[in-house]
Amino acid sequence: MSEEIAATPAKRELSNPGSPETKPTAKKQDTENKDVTGLELSTASDKQSTTANEEKPKFKREKQPPKPKKRKYKAKDVDETSPAGVLQFEIAEILEENQLTENDIANDISSILNSSEAYHNYHREVEHAEIIKLTSNGDGLALIANPVETQKKQIVIVPFAIKGDIVTIRVFKTHPNYVESDLLKIETGGPDRDNSLIRCEYFGKCSGCQYQQLTYDTQLLYKKQTIENAYKFLAPKLQIPEVLETIPSPKQFSYRTKLTPHFDISKRVPQVEQPMFGFGAKGKSNWRETRGGDKSIVDIEECIIGTQMVNIGMANERKRFETTWKNYKKSATILLRENTKVIKDLQTPVEQQLDPASTDSNDKISYIEETSGEDKLAKTCVTETRQIVTEYINGFTFEFCAGEFFQNNNSILPKVTEYVCSNLQIPRPEGTPLYLVDAYCGSGLFSITASKGVDKVVGVDVSKESIRFAKMNAERNNVKNAVFIDGKAEKIFNEIDTPNDLTSIIIDPSRKGCDLVFLNQLSAYKPAKIVYVSCNVHSQARDLQQFLLETENGHEYKIESLRGFDFFPQTHHVESVVVLSRV
Asked: Among 200, 303, 441, 535, which one carries the catalytic annotation?
């Protein structure tokens, strides 16, 4: 499922090159054979040297200043399923569509690194750039003229731009086959752009959202295209069924139950001003008036995709930060996690029943009262990573540490868990038992919500802490048919004793996906059905191609369905769920 991805601003540009000044080494003054006036003194050996065959005096060659070393570009290895890796597939597609070669878009990195003139030629403003494609990371891509080699083109990334936009940009960073830019002006908006939809005062500067200028239906279409492209790029050998429509989130705003604002403390110079408190900036775009300052962190007072309670917590912590920031010796991240508690004692004041949480300026815990059916609820905002918080999902109760992973949009979780459960069923004679293995179970979300439809559940996770909470959550929800094992997913089949023909498996790994060791063991076990839930559709596509084509029994499976779930409206992120069955 989704992971928080820390938003780190990119370095602005390659440092401005220039030749280092080299001062010649001062020559030592030879004071030998000189009197105090500095005149040469005559010696016997000098007189003997005045002969017909007198040798010419030898002089030491003055040392020349060292030549400045040329700076070299060092390419970094990137995971092909990461945004930087996927970008290379998107660039290749642009080349093919425009009948260009890699050389046609190659940038002279050596000149940029070693020539101030080249540096300034490349990093310039460009008008009338047309956005021709949207990346999986939510940025626009355009083809512009190379400023030095006029027969060439450049591929440029433009944040906050969408297909069809005509824009003015400022190029600030150069890579071997693309450049990065800031969006300065929307000259003409594309057919999908509607700036009246933008509700955030920081959109266009904060890196959190990319799609506020789009209708929600258009956002869902773009996310479906992201899934289609992922399988086209990372699983080109597979024949996949048509990608189903993306399941929308019931809430498009005020849905995030966790936020992590942060701030930077300089290690090089004393911090004399209060640092910005918020989220990473996306370059230095100025295409619309925004709040938040012009630093690498946008100073944010409210996040419109965060829940009301989390935003109250952020206001509390911002106020506290005004007086405590000098106590910090280094940069830090503040945890804001919503917690929900059922108020059972209606006679005792709510304030006396609350767990520790974010407090206001009067040192009183901030909370919001709500009702759910017959229950009275109190929501608070937790800031301590080790504190236990509670979520209520579709009639189930889950507890976990505030700093541990758990889904951040609980409004869509009932739809996801119901979809997963409905796809675990295996055709079998009436009365035949059904088993479930949850390979990356965490604190038990899928294991517990799917437990009613199977006879036995085995949950496995590498985190002993997660397994501890999974066991407690099973007990709390009166789930008697689940067992949980702490251990690496690569070795889980050593612990599984359920008959494979009657077993379904849920795979829910981190963003990096599964490794080939796990996929080979999964193939050898040969479960009847597999449901793969992923927060990174690109690693999911890679894994499925490896599983189906490179493992012993992968050829016995077919992809039944593939669709996205929108956990994060207004952003480019999309969850994907694929269902496989053994033929």
From this structure: 535
Task: Output the CATH code of domain 227-250+411-582.
Answer: 3.40.50.150
> Which segments of 161-203 does DSSP mark as H helices, in order?
none
Mean pLDDT on 407-411: 95
Beta bridge partners of 558: 581
Query: 506, 460 in Cβ contact below 8 A?
Result: no
Please give the annotated binding residues for S-adenosyl-L-methionine, written as ranges: 407, 440, 461, 508
The overall pTM is greater than 0.70: yes
Residue partners of 406: CB distance under 8 A and separation at least 6: 258, 391, 398, 400, 442, 443, 445
CATH superfamily of 83-193: Nucleic acid-binding proteins (2.40.50.140)
Domain ranges of the chain: 83-193, 227-250+411-582, 258-397
| Tens digits of residue pLDDT in 539-580 | 999 999 999 999 999 999 999 999 999 999 999 999 999 999
In the annotation, is 535 catalytic? Answer: yes
Q: Centre a 10 Å sphere on the Cβ of residue 307 and count the other Cβ atoms it contains.
A: 26
Annotated binding-site residues read 407, 440, 461, 508
DSSP string over 452-465: GGSSEEEEEES-HH
Fold matches, 83-193 and 227-250+411-582: no
Span of 34-38, 63-67, 272-276, 278-282 with lowest mean pLDDT: 34-38
Residue 364: predicted pLDDT: 96
